[in-house]
Amino acid sequence: MAEKLLTLFTAPKPFKDPHISIIQNNALKSWMALGDRVEIIILGNDEGVAENAKTLGIMHIPQVKCNTLGTPLISSMLRLTCEHSKSQILGIVNTDIILFSDLIESVMKISLQKEKFILIGQRWDMEVTKNLPEGADQFARFKEKVIKVGKLHLPMGSDYFIFPRSCYTEIPDLTIGRAGWDNWFIFKSRWEGWPVVDATHDVTVVHQNHDYRHLPGGQPHYRLPETRENVLRGGGEQTIFTIFDAQYSLINGGLKRKKTSMKKIFREIEIFPMTILKSTTLGKLFYFAFRPRKAYHAARNFFKGNQG
Quick check: 58 and 25 in contact, CB under 8 A? Predict the structure, then answer.
């Protein structure tokens, strides 16, 4: 048996809605097509998860810790993954994301260059409504369609996070599938001084478009109370980091410093108190200094609360 290079772990949505079931199975089959050096762990016990894991022959861990609403906590997911896997590189990936072999090639190259890092990147959005054919060759053919049909998503978040198991040993109780946790992962890497590597150039990932019928009230995840809770648990709005905050790009397997621009310079000045001085207090002050309108509303709400 080949030594495992990478462990991918995820907490799927319930296999209840027909379209969600299709895109999740497409994603998992694409991960399986990555080969013997990749192991996959599915966590959680929502409807249909155990059955689909068994059908695909994927390791399933049902006893993940959840919040009061039953949403899995990433801290528990990561702990269980570390307990049940031996690979030195881990990857948390959303279960609607199709992966290709270029991810494995990139992980191998960056792991030779950096001891600690986080690999992230923009996704390609596509409409996928049918089951895709299985196998590495079939997914390689599907990849050829991505640039023609797909749309590159803005660098406002990330749907995959690849990192050595020595990173992220302490994580707040953030919930999966709600906004904020992905931003915190990027913030944490900058706070600790690990390189944040934007792999958009070298790694193609596909997000299969879907609606939000599976969420309470059919609302997008960023409008749910759990998102606000994620942001608070992660340290506040000043910890909302994105792919734009990466210091490096992965270009043909090599690490290149991100190009300098006035926008990038101002952003680095804004986050300087946290990334260099390690001060959350100064970080909050700088955050509001760069956003006077938010500072005004925050001050008004503060004084309103005190008067009440």
Answer: no
In a domain, 1, yes or no: no
Q: What is d(CA 149, CA 75) in angstroms, rounded to the nearest whole number?
A: 36
The span from the CA of 6 to the CA of 86, in Å, is 9
In this structure, the answer to whether residues 242 and 274 fall within a common structural domain is: no
Angle between the N-to-C axes of helices 280-289 and 262-275, in degrees from 0 to 180, rounded to the nearest 10? 150
147 lies in the same domain as 267:
no
Q: Record the pTM.
A: 0.93
Q: In this structure, is the dihedral angle defined by the CA atoms of residues 139, 140, 141 and 146, taken in order, positive or negative?
A: positive
Q: pLDDT band at residue 299, thresholds of 50, 70 and 90?
A: confident
pLDDT digits (tens, 9 = 90+) for 13-64: 999 999 999 999 999 999 999 999 999 999 999 999 999 999 999 999 999 9
Number of domains in the chain: 2
How many Å is the Cα radius of gyration of the chain?
20
Largest CA distance in the chain: 67
By residue range, what is the domain housing residue 296? 260-307
